Each structure stands twice: as structure tokens, then as C-alpha cells.
Task: inverse folding
């Protein structure tokens, strides 16, 4: 099952020219700078932008072919706009019911109460949109989109219009969508942090074109793509909670390359967790250090090295097949004689647990 | 106080304004919706035609209507050929004239209200499974309600004050085409100032009350908006 799209549309001096194939499950992030056409692509998928000779297949549903265009209101999708767009003439309950009323009873799979519970908006139902904070409005907008039992959820930078505190308020709800929903989600973003937290699949866009598309772990660590060279670059590691240490208040997380030790998290054993290891927090040693305070040390093989603009290099390593990035000085790389194929040890100074 | 003929003129005026407003809302809503959303490059021509009664002397409009609606005019002739009665000097003729005369007062507030909604709420409704017609009734109309109120009151009040057009195509037939503004003119001509006062004062009061209502309600709407 996959999502296939091909669009060519010109708007003034901007041209969107994309051909896309992404898996029809999990969260696919469309990532790129402002004005690169992310939103236009999402609107074309929703049918809000029309183009001739476009093609769009969501699994077995043909939404656009050479001679057929399914209008937006006949597409079973959920759409959340960048700025919270609640109907001003309806209260929260009315907003939630607006879409549900228009979905045939046989196609209703998500109940309003389920959507209300998922987004935690039960106490807001009687309020009007001008009595809600920006974060609350966006939560209602997400619940409203979910309540129509969509077969695909399209999110257009749902956090972009919110301040940092509001983003932190909504992020857990988006992460829970990831776990609770079986439908594919396409998430437009220009925030590397949001992408690292949420996405399974990543599509990179620039100037109306798709520059790369692939699984998030690979995309973040591919040295031929810009993400690995960002100052915030880092690797994502899918790990499983292996146990807790009551004496030292620690949690152990296993991944194919070894075991991470992090401060204690109240997660059940066997729970899947996503870890982020920033490239600048990873140092390399030739021998396995024993007299060090760093706990997270793994053997790894150097895969590739590229120069950064300054005095630094980025090293891509594989630890048990899992890619990890390290940002070190060019001097260190020379002194340690680092080159592809060499066996080294990776030391991660800090690890962020994302979910 | 009001004399019987004055009362007849007053009721006729209210009836004319009511019927005209109703027809204008029915015709003007789709027209204003189209004007607010269309990207047709010659749209401005239609907008200029709608606005024409704002600047045209009512007698000019009345003169052309008289010719068109008369038994030898295109519309009047058609009516006669179909076996209908001629439209000039009839209530129906007055309604046609009033609809054209008050058109901008209904279409422009509606057009502004529809334009102010923007595309976004309608796009949201589309993603929530609402068909184009459904979107119009469930989103555009409720969001443009203050525009509808303004349009209805302005259309009604403007028709109340009509004089030139009525004089040209309606004449002065009591119970059929004699409206208040004409009756006032008659009273002044006949030096019956007391009766002219009653009718003029009544019209002034009515118009003022309606405008107060529009501004008061629009103010409340503005406060509720986000």
C-alpha cells in the first residue's frame, strides 16, 4: 500500500513539479524551507489546488487521474490548516459535529468522544473559538479532522502559528496519534525537531521539487543531504525498554548496536522508544574507554566522512547496522587516522528520549 | 393625523419596500456571491452596472424604464404579446423599477460580507465533506449574517424614499402606485403642510429606527468576532 502523487502546477512565478511515492502508513513528513511548495503539495493532495494531468492514488483510492478529479468534499481525508481555522459561528461542539454529520453512518469509525478524548478537549465543548487559546483551537481543529474518520490525515504545519509553550502542549497529542491511528499521516513542517519526533518517512523539498525521499533514520544521517550537515544534526535510534535500575534510578534501552542508559523514565519494559543522539554530543575513541563517566559507549564502523565548512567533519557510523552521526574536529579525525571501514568506539554524551 | 388616502399610500410604500427587498435578497445573494468570488477579468463591468443607480438621477432611470416597460417597449411589448397587462403605471412596474434602483444597496453589503469571509472557512468546510451548496448555506450565510441584515435594511429603507423612479413609471394612482414620497409632494403642492408633516415625520422616524438597528447589531457582531 502506498501513496503515489504526480503534480505539475504553476502559480505566478512558482512552479510545483513533483512525483512522489510514500508508504500509506505511519507519519510522512514533508520538510523544506518556507516557500518551497510544501503547503501547495499538501493542498494538491487534498484537492484544494487543481492541476491538469495530475495523478493521485491513496492506497486503492484513485483521487485524481488523467480524466477524473474527485472534489475535496468527496475525499475521505482530514485536514488541519496552519492557522487554527475554527468556524466562528459555531461553538467547539458544533465545530466537531460539522464534519461528522456529513459522513455516512456506515463510514464512521472514530467517534466524536474518541476524538475529544485523544485531544483532551472535553472541558471546552461549549466555548466559542474566540474564547480559546491558540493551542486549544488547534487541538479542536485536529479533533475535528479526526472525527470525520479520515482515511488519511493531512497536517499543514499545525504548530507553526504557536509559541514554544503551546507547541509543547500539543506535541504529546500528535505523538499519541502516531501510536493510536492506523491511517497514514502527511505532516508538513519546516522544524527539524518536529520531524525527528514524529516522522517515520521523510520527503525533502526545495524550490517546488522533491530532492529526496526515504525512511527517516536514513534521511537524517545521509551525508549527501543537508540534514546531516545542520548544526542540530543527529541520528534517530529506535530502541526498546529493557529494564530499570532502582538503585541508580536509570532506564536501559536496547538497540541492535548495544544498550543505552538514560535517567529513569516510567515506561513499561518492552515499550518502543525513539532516541535522538545529536552529532555534536558524540565523540569517537579508538580503544574502548573504561575510565570515563560516559555510560553510552558502543562499538561502530565508520561508514563515511565529510568535511564541514569550518574546522569540523561529520562522521557517519554504523553501530549494529544503526546509523549514528558524530561531529568532531578535522584535527581529531586526522590524529586518529579515521577513514571508512575503521572500527572505533562511539561515546554519546547525552541522549534525548523523544517518545 | 393620517387621512385614509395617506394610510393607503403608507401601506403601499411598505408593501413595495417589502416585496422589493425580498426579491433583491433572492436575486442579489447569488449575484453578490459570484461577484465576491469570481476571477473573471471583466467582472468590473458588472460591478459598475450594479452601482449605476447610486449616481444616476432617478428620473433618467425612470425614463428608460418607462420606455422599456411601456406597451411599445421591449419588455412591455413582450408582456402585451403574452396577453399580460402593461407594466408601466402598475404596482408590478414599480417593483421592477425599485429592484433596479435599490440593487446596489443590497448587492454591495452582501458582496463585502462574502469577501470578508475569505476562502479559508469554505476550504475547511470542503475538507469536512460539505458540498459547494452545503458550504454556502452552512458556512457562508451564517458568517455573512451581518451583511444580510445591512443589505435588507438598506434595501428596504432606500425603497421607502424612492421618488423620481416612481414618478416616471408609476404616476400617481392612489392604491396602485401612489407611495408616501409622492403623497408628500402632493400635500406640499396643495399647501396641506400638516399632513405633509405627519407623513414626512413618520418616514424620517422609520428610516432612523432601521438604521439604528443596523448599526447597533453590526457593532455587536463585530464584538463577537474573534
Result:
Amino acid at each position: 500500500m502506498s501513496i503515489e502523487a504526480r503534480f505539475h502546477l504553476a502559480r505566478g512565478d512558482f512552479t510545483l513539479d513533483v512525483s512522489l511515492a510514500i508508504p500509506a502508513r505511519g507519519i510522512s513528513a514533508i520538510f523544506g524551507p518556507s516557500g518551497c511548495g510544501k503547503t501547495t503539495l499538501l493542498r494538491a493532495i487534498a484537492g484544494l489546488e487543481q492541476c491538469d494531468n495530475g495523478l493521485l492514488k491513496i492506497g486503492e483510492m484513485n483521487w485524481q487521474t488523467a480524466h477524473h478529479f474527485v472534489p475535496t468534499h468527496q475525499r475521505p481525508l482530514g485536514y488541519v490548516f496552519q492557522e487554527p481555522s475554527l468556524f466562528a459561528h459555531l461553538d467547539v461542539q458544533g465545530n466537531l459535529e460539522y464534519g461528522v454529520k456529513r459522513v455516512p453512518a456506515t463510514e464512521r469509525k472514530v467517534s466524536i468522544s474518541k476524538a475529544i478524548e485523544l485531544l483532551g478537549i472535553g472541558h471546552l465543548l461549549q466555548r466559542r473559538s474566540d474564547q480559546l487559546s491558540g493551542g486549544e483551537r488547534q487541538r479542536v481543529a485536529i479533533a475535528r479532522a479526526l472525527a470525520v474518520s479520515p482515511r488519511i490525515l493531512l497536517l499543514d504545519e499545525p504548530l507553526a502559528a504557536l509559541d514554544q509553550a503551546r507547541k509543547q502542549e500539543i506535541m504529546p497529542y500528535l505523538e499519541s496519534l502516531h501510536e493510536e491511528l492506523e491511517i497514514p499521516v502527511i505532516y508538513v513542517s519546516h522544524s527539524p525537531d518536529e520531524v525527528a519526533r514524529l516522522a517515520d518517512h521523510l520527503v525533502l523539498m526545495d524550490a517546488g521539487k522533491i530532492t529526496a525521499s526515504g525512511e527517516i533514520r536514513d534521511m537524517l544521517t545521509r551525508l549527501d543531504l543537508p540534514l546531516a550537515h545542520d548544526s542540530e544534526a543527529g541520528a534517530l535510534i529506535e530502541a526498546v525498554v529493557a529494564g530499570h535500575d532502582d538503585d541508580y534510578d536509570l532506564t536501559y534501552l536496547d538497540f541492535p548496536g548495544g544498550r543505552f542508559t538514560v535517567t529513569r523514565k516510567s515506561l513499561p519494559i518492552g515499550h518502543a522508544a525513539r532516541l535522538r543522539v545529536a552529532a555534536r554530543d558524540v565523540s569517537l575513541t579508538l580503544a574502548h574507554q573504561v575510565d570515563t563517566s560516559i555510560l553510552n559507549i558502543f562499538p561502530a564502523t565508520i561508514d563515511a566522512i565529510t568535511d564541514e565548512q569550518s574546522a569540523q567533519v561529520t562522521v557517519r557510523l554504523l553501530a549494529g547496522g544503526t546509523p549514528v552521526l558524530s561531529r568532531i574536529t578535522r584535527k581529531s579525525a586526522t590524529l586518529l587516522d579515521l577513514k571508512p571501514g575503521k572500527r572505533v568506539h562511539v561515546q554519546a554524551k547525552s541522549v534525548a528520549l523523544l517518545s | 393625523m393620517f387621512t385614509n388616502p395617506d394610510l393607503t399610500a403608507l401601506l403601499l410604500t411598505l408593501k413595495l419596500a417589502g416585496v422589493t427587498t425580498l426579491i433583491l435578497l433572492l436575486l442579489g445573494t447569488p449575484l453578490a456571491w459570484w461577484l465576491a468570488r469570481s476571477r473573471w477579468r471583466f467582472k468590473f463591468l458588472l460591478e459598475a452596472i450594479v452601482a449605476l443607480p447610486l449616481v444616476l438621477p432617478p428620473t433618467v432611470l425612470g425614463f428608460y424604464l418607462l420606455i422599456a416597460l411601456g406597451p411599445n417597449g421591449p419588455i412591455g411589448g413582450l408582456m402585451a404579446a403574452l396577453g399580460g397587462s402593461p407594466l408601466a403605471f402598475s404596482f408590478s412596474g414599480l417593483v421592477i423599477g425599485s429592484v433596479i434602483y435599490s440593487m446596489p444597496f443590497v448587492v454591495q453589503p452582501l458582496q463585502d460580507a462574502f469577501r470578508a469571509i475569505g476562502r479559508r472557512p469554505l476550504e475547511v468546510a470542503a475538507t469536512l465533506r460539505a458540498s459547494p451548496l452545503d458550504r454556502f448555506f452552512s458556512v457562508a450565510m451564517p458568517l455573512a449574517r451581518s451583511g444580510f441584515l445591512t443589505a435588507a435594511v438598506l434595501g428596504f429603507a432606500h425603497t421607502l424614499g424612492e421618488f423620481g423612479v416612481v414618478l416616471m413609471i408609476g404616476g400617481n394612482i392612489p392604491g396602485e402606485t401612489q407611495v408616501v414620497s409622492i403623497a408628500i409632494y402632493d400635500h406640499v403642492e396643495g399647501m396641506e403642510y400638516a399632513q405633509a408633516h405627519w407623513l414626512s415625520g413618520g418616514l424620517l422616524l422609520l428610516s432612523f429606527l432601521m438604521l439604528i438597528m443596523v448599526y447597533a447589531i453590526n457593532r455587536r457582531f463585530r464584538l463577537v468576532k474573534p
Summary: DSSP finds eight helices and 21 strands in chain A. The interface with chain B takes residues 46-48, 71-74, 77-79, 81, 85, 87-89, 98-99, 102-103, 128-130, 144-145, 148 of chain A (CB under 8 Å). Chain A has two domains: 2-229, 234-239+272-353. The domain at 2-229 of chain A is CATH 3.40.50.300 (Rossmann fold).
